[in-house]
Structures are given as C-alpha cells and as structure tokens.
Amino acid sequence: MPIRILSEEVASQIAAGEVVERPASVVKELMENALDAGASQVVIRIEKAGRRLVEVADDGVGIPREEIRLAVQRHATSKLETADDLFHIRTLGFRGEALASIGSVSRLTLTSRSAKDKSGMRLIMEGGQIKTVEETGAPAGTVVRVEDLFYNVPARLKFLKRDLTERQQIDALVTRYAVAYPERRFQLYHDGQVTLQTAGSGDRREVLATLYGIELARQMLEITLEDGDMRINGFISPVSLTRSNRREMTFFINGRWVQDVMLSSSVLQGYHTLLMVGRYPFTVLFISLPPEEVDVNVHPAKAEVRFRQPDRVFGAVQRAVRRGLLAYSAPPPITTTVWRGSPRQSAAVPPMIDPAWEMAAETKTAQREVSTVPSVTQPNLPSGQVPLLRLLGQIGATYLVAEGPDGLYLIDQHAAHERVLFEKLLSQSRGDVPTQILLEPVVFQLPPHGAQLLTEQLPLLTRLGFDVEPFGMNTFRVRALPALLTKSDPVAAVRAVVEDFEEDETPLQAEQEARLIARVCKRAAVKAGQALTPEEQSALLRDLEACQSPRTCPHGRPTMIHLSVDLLERQFGRRGSR
Q1: Could you give the CA distance from residue 519 to residue 497 in angstroms, rounded to a whole number?
Q2: DSSP H helical segments within 329-406, as ranges?
Q3: Is 454 contained in some domain?
Q4: Which domain holds residue 51?
Q5: Does some domain include residue 211?
Q6: pLDDT per residue as tens digits for the range 76-91
Q7: The domain that contains 247 carries what CATH number?
Q8: Which of 28, 294, 381, 485 sits most deeply, having the most CB atoms within 10 A of its CB?
Q9: Do residues 251 and 285 touch, judged by C-beta distance below 8 A?
Q10: Is 375 domain-assigned?
C-alpha cells in the first residue's frame, strides 16, 4: 500500500480518539476550559449518560465574536505562544485540541459572548465541519452543547460501558473538581435531575460534607506541609476509615487532577503498618510547585505528569501523610513494666541493667532452643465439615480457641461470623427474609456516583429484607434491616453495597445477589478486637459447625487454622520428625 497523507476528517477522528475516550472525557475538557476562563459557576447537564447530550455552561470571560471560528480549529489556543511556554504552564488546557476533537465526533453547538461584546455568537459544527455561524443574544460566558457523541464513529460507540458506569465516571470527575475548587459553584444534572450542587463558599470541608456526608467530612484529617517552593495540603482519612480500592485516592498537581501510581504508593507508605492488607485510605491531596518543576505534556488526556525531582515530591507526600497521622493520634501510654513472669521478678531487676537488654537476651536464647526442634510442615486441613469442637476461650479479643478430636483449632471470629451470616441470609433470600423495623430511621448521604449505584440496587436490597428509600439529593433513609443484622450498624451495612463495588460489575442476577450479601455480611460481622461473652463464643462456634463451607469466609479467606496433636508433639520434642 503506498504512503499517503490522511484526509482532514480521518486525522481529526484519530486526534479525537486520543482526547475523547468517553462522555466523561468531554465533561473534563469542557469543565477545565470553563475553569481556565475564570468561571465562578459551572453548570453541567447530561442526558442518557452523555450519549445524547453533554452541556457545560459557565459565566467566564467568553470568546470574542471575531474568534468564534478560530476556537474550534485544531491547535488553536490562547494559552501558549512559544515552545518554551510548555514548561511554564499555569492553565488546565493548553493544546487547543479539545473543541476540535469533540466537534469531529459529535454535533457541537458553541454559544459565547465576551463581556465587551453586546451580543453573542453561535457556531454549529457537525462531524468536524462548521455548518453555521450566527449572531445571537446570550449572557456573558460560554455554553458548549455536545449532542449525539460518536454518532459518526459507531465502532467507538459500541465500546462505551453501560449507562450506570458512564454516569459514575462523570459523577466522580465532577466531584473531584468540586472539592479541588471550593470557591466555584458546581451544578450537575442527569436527565433533568440535579445530582450535585455546591455553594462555592471556598470551604473545602464544607464541600466534602455536601458530597460525602457530614460524618465523613468530620472524620477527615487536614494536613499541610511546606518544603521550599513546594506546598502540600489536603485531607487524609484516619486509619478507621478505609476503602477496598484506590479509587478514592485523589491527587491534584497545580489544580490539575492526575493519576499517578507513585503518589498513591507514597501515601500508602505514610500509612505503613497502620492499615489492614487490601484496605486503602480516603485521600484528597493538592500539590503546588513551580510549573517548570512538572511536565504535564506527557499524556494525551493530560492525566499523567512527570516531575523533575520525583524523589523529592514522593518523599514530601509520605512525610506529610505520616506527620498528619501522628499529629492526630493519641500518644501511646508510657509504661516501664516488663513482662518477666511475675511482678516480684520484675521488681527484682537490678537498676543498672536495662530490662530491654535482658528481654532481648532471653529472646535470643529461646530462638536457639527452638532452632533445635525439628522443623515440620503443617498438614493440610481435612476437607469437608469440621468435627464437633469444645470451646476453650478467646485470644486477643480476635480468635477463638477450640479443641477437636484431631487437635487444636484457632478460629478467626470475624471471618467465621461472616460465613455464618452469609449462609443464613443467602438461605433466607430464597423465601421471605425476616425483617426488623428500626425504632428510629437512620439518614445518611453518599457522593453522586455512589447514590446512583445504590438507587439501582434498591430492588435487590428490598428482596434481602432492607427498607431503604431516597430522602433527598444523594441522601437515603434506612427504615428496616434483615433480622439477622439487627445488631450491626445499618448505615455501614448499606454503604457496603457501593463502597466495594467494582466498575461495570454486571454478573448474573444470582451471582450479583451473592456478592451483595457477602459485602453486607462483611460489614455486619463481629470485628477483630471485639470481646465476646462465653455464650456468644459458644453460639458462634455452633453456628460455624452447621455451615456448609465452614473453613472459609465468603471472600475465600480461611476461618480457622488446625494444629494436629501430632504436630504439637513434634514441636514440643515429644516425637521425632519423620
């Protein structure tokens, strides 16, 4: 095939493929243009998850009437003049590709009026071709209306996810920018219904409360760190407030939302040893540094950046997070007591000898003694049901100890209770689930993307014995719970439906129901560190014995560890290794 120059139409659609990936990409580009234009209010209207309409209106400086045609041309921008300006970017947009790329794969209507003009201009563009340009009355600012996205690229249209997923992407994007720019007013409408609205007061914690609920905003820890010409500020969650994935770890570099694995890793290093495996903090961090210290022109969608001194940035983020956690944590109690078998022995330690040194010496001696015991491999747990167990007690308010005919069993109370609740609720869901009406209904709030997801799951929750109803914008009220979960936190049980949900998770109905029950039971189960009465311990043990799959929780984690009598005898040197 001979080499040829691509037509303008094909070149435009290729360029659009780099910039416009999905409806959320359109929202991002237009919203950033509005913020660059100095808008104090940004109104976003979405229909059919952006497939039918994406409209972004702002009250910014507007486009002068003589430049309206130029605004939709490729590489036309007011934010750059020379190549050197690429290393001093202070705006969100700079390439001049957004409007041209969006217009090449949609029907675009651009209406704008600058403050110095008495009337505005309207430009209509279809498939990259300008159809009409006319004078019109309009308020100061700009309105960009994008209809029938990908109408001329049906292959791209087929790759879009279901409407719920595309809406979630848009909601999450607008939510992030609303938190990043608390002094601007944001309004988001889906099919004529308002789903997000901020006051523009400039108080970032107030925006968090509006979007995520008062309780979450109250728990968030505010952090600040200055290192020369770099400043880090924002919010991090306490160790008690976590998520099952990294989606709620948000970073802004000089006001631009970015996705950076190393920044996420730096935050996790700040939480080192404080979080459970598989749990991630809720963070919103803003990093400000000189524009020449960061290169934003390394990704087609400007979602990634490159730092001139990456180690300095990542180290500062880690320090800021760690200092914030330590500053808000209560100091540990100071004690000089060293466990040595009895208080009398501890008191007899000579004052000139550091007890910690003696403790270390004893530990080394014990390690040498243990090393002489033949190493053995623990046998696999016997398959099938567990035998009848005799409860011995609880260790560390986390594990149950029980004796069986074939040895000792250590049982994780959280995983075990999770399995018990899961099998009971799954069995009840096949008929009429017994419910318990709450004495006082509980009201809670979710971010827009979570509220939409919960709304879609309400029929399934009803079948499982929940009575949850909408109670305002992104707000819900819990009126009843399944009788099995009456001792649990109703809000935590319902939040589990959305907080652990994966993007575009569309399993079969039966599988979806089982996953949802597993999430709810995980939140409702007794926690590690929760002391149980002897009666509660015994009841949990009996319930676990009656389960069909007692050895693992619904998520596959083991509920128990088995130590056979043979293994114990060999560890204590009563029987030689084989």
Answers
A1: 7
A2: 343-347, 355-371
A3: yes
A4: 8-200
A5: no
A6: 776 666 666 666 677 7
A7: 3.30.230.10
A8: 28
A9: yes
A10: no
Please state, in angstroms and as integers, the Cα–Cα distance from residue 568 to each residue in 61, 234, 408, 576, following that order.
Answer: 78, 52, 9, 11
Which of the 8 DSSP states describes residue 329? S
Q: pLDDT tens digits for 92-143?
A: 876 678 898 899 999 999 999 998 999 999 999 998 899 999 999 999 999 9
Nearest Cα neighbor of 171 from 386, 555, 454 is 454
442-498 pLDDT, tens digit per residue, is 998 888 888 888 888 888 889 889 999 999 888 999 999 999 888 888 888 888 777
**Per-residue CA distances from 368 to 166, 356, 371 (Å):** 61, 19, 5
pTM over 0.90: no
27 and 118 in a common domain: yes
Within 10 Å of residue 419's Cβ, how many Cβ atoms? Answer: 27
Non-local CB neighbours of 378 within 8 Å, separated by 6+ positions: 562, 563, 567
Residue/partner pairs of 6-14 with CB below 8 Å, 24 or more apart: 8/128, 9/104, 9/127, 9/128, 12/74, 12/100, 12/101, 12/104, 12/128, 13/104, 13/105, 13/128, 13/153
Residue 354 maps to a domain = no
The token duo for 438 is 């709450």
Domain count, the chain: 3
Six-digit token string for 551 = 């050895």
> What CATH number did the domain enclosing 508 receive?
3.30.1540.20
Average pLDDT over residues 535-557: 90
